UniProtKB/TrEMBL annotation, chain A:
SUPFAM superfamilies: PX domain (SSF64268). Residues 1-118 form the PX domain. Keywords: Protein transport, Signal, Transport. This is Sorting nexin 4. GO terms for cellular component: early endosome membrane; plasma membrane; SNARE complex. Residues 1-26 form the signal peptide. One of its GO terms (biological process) is positive regulation of autophagosome assembly.
From TrEMBL, chain B:
SMART domains: PX. It comes from Macaca fascicularis. Residues 44-54 have a biased composition (Low complexity). The gene is SNX30. This is Sorting nexin-30. PANTHER family: SORTING NEXIN-30, SORTING NEXIN-4.
Amino acid sequence: MYVFLFLKNNFSVVLFLFRSVEHTDGQSVLTDSLWRRYSEFELLRNYLLVYYPHIVVPPLPEKRAEFVWHKLSADNMDPDFVERRRIGLENFLLRIASHPILCRDKIFYLFLTQEGNWKETVNETGFQLKADSRLKALNATFRVKNPDKRFTDLKHYSDELQSVISHLLRVRARVADRLYGVYKVHGNYGRVFSEWSAIEKEMGDGLQSAGHHMDVYASSIDDILEDEEHYADQLKEYLFYAEALRAVCRKHELMQYDLEMAAQDLASKKQQCEELATGTVRTFSLKGMTTKLFGQETPEQREARIKVLEEQINEGEQQLKSKNLEGREFVKNAWADIERFKEQKNRDLKEALISYAVMQISIRLHLVWTNSYLCLSEL
Amino acid sequence: MPHPLAGSSSEEAVGGDSTPSPDLLMARSFGDKDLILPNGGTPAGTSSPASSSSLLNRLQLDDDIDGETRDLFVIVDDPKKHVCTMETYITYRITTKSTRVEFDLPEYSVRRRYQDFDWLRSKLEESQPTHLIPPLPEKFVVKGVVDRFSEEFVETRRKALDKFLKRITDHPVLSFNEHFNVFLTAKDLNAYKKQGIALLTRMGESVKHVTGGYKLRTRPLEFAAIGDYLDTFALKLGTIDRIAQRIIKEEIEYLVELREYGPVYSTWSALEGELAEPLEGVSACIGNCSTALEELTDDMTEDFLPVLREYILYSDSMKSVLKKRDQVQAEYEAKLEAVALRKEDRPKVPADVEKCQDRMECFNADLKADMERWQNNKRQDFRQLLMGMADKNIQYYEKCLMAWESIIPLLQEKQEANGFQLVFIPWWSL
């Protein structure tokens, strides 16, 4: 499946058009293109987060420009920013399309093919109701007793990754700012060398070419920084991926906590039952107190309560079994996707670093040659 | 098989000491952006062409051979700090080698301090007023801002003082000046200074007696042109000086950020497994680039700015010489006019007016000759300066290049292990 995104500006709203080309029986079919807004991408992602909590769901590009090096590009309507966001959204869809599990999702398919009423279709799944409440998740994080160590480590890693990439992006923006200053001040040489060359006889030509070289140098910074933005975007994707990693860890903590609570609840019920059966009161209970104060309950009443408890215990044991199974399934599947993610991350970041290095090399090479050319022309 | 980029181009990149063979020079054509690179030698072909300074050295050598055979060589070196009760100061060793008859011995070695150079210069101005005397580096240094005893400052000064003496040495008239001779040879210069010997040349004596107060109506065209040229020249150099200082300031601020940027990659590297080595590599690479940039800004401060300032000082002193010439001409013209007004029958011009005319014509001739010499030297100096700067820039870029190139193999090895054959083909080898 191939996805291509194009842009259209409609007053203050940016819409995205895409076509998907499907291969059915070796034939390419160009389906109709349709329009999607950024908010619909968000909706798609939120849906995927709920239905695939064990998957590291690809992140969306930033809604607002952050880590900007130059005040101007903080504008969300800036064409360069919009273009970079388009690339980010295209990338987002490609990542889903190439994911072994996510690519088969029906809602995703409809996102690419269903023109109208897609939003309603998504909402009809009732995914919002299935979403875990933030509060519940936070509570679980603090109270869980025995989470899988791998997930705890992963959570620490994702926190640190987020922190270090943010720091990197911030400093990179400052570096870019300063570099811009250096290049632009060189531009001032252009005019003065030109003026100086006017009063010289033999030196005139050499000075003119020196001045021209300075102007070219000064104006080259815009392209250089544009290329650097691409590198920054690649880093940003993994900054946001860290959040997705953490979401999977949170889900595990939630499930684990749920499990622990269920086990705890079951254990207390079993104990209650035992106490009622043997008549020993080891745990405090209101019923126990009132019986002490107001007289013993009848054997029939006790019998009834034991019966209820035994039913609850049975239910509880079933639930615990299924929760345990669920938990283990989750850990297995999540870890499989995390391994997949790790490989992807290492590959992608290596590529990003190579491109960055190659870019730096080509800039320097170009400067070596132009400076040498300048030297020889002066002769 | 070594990585295509692992081949070190350091032999040609570092310094410009090795002079390239002529064929190597011919092999490079810099027509349009199509650059033909030499084969063999460095496998990577990433080396720069022979550094410009080494090329320039070859040219200068040729110049010397073409020019007159030298019989006077002067070098300023070996600065030493002297700590006395009253003051602390630096002396420089002046070594002179000469076959001229004016020198009793073939070789001399004396020690002089800045004060002595300053004395020499004022004596030269006094005794050779019709000539352009080279400038000295700035006398006063704002204490607290610049350390007068720091290595960089002393070295910058030494180079300027050496230049000063070499310029006098090259001058056909100034190099024979008596004060200059004493400066180079006398064991006790202070004793000589105290004698207050005024060794003025004929012209010096003559010009000394030129009375001020005569106003020149119009400067002759050629001297007016020189005056205008010097005005604009000094103005442009001043602007370039300001821009250069601004650039250095911006580069330092850029450096500050770079020094924070590099280590963040190290921090990241500590979190990772497979990516640890490449990230650490990037951190080291950025560190190397930072160091290279620091060296570049130091070079700009030590080599580029002082020459600009020196030429601004030069223009100023030249403008005063022009003014003096104007005075000489003014006096002559005034006296000539006075004679004309006296309505004498005898067309003969009185002796003192003749003397004035003689004085003026000598001054004009000396000044014109010196201007031409100055223009030639200025061209050479600035060519060397600008190419030197371009060369330093090239060295900086090459250091950065090598740093970034060293990362590539770190990132590639692992890729091959995955079964992907990522072959990095640099475009410049195609």
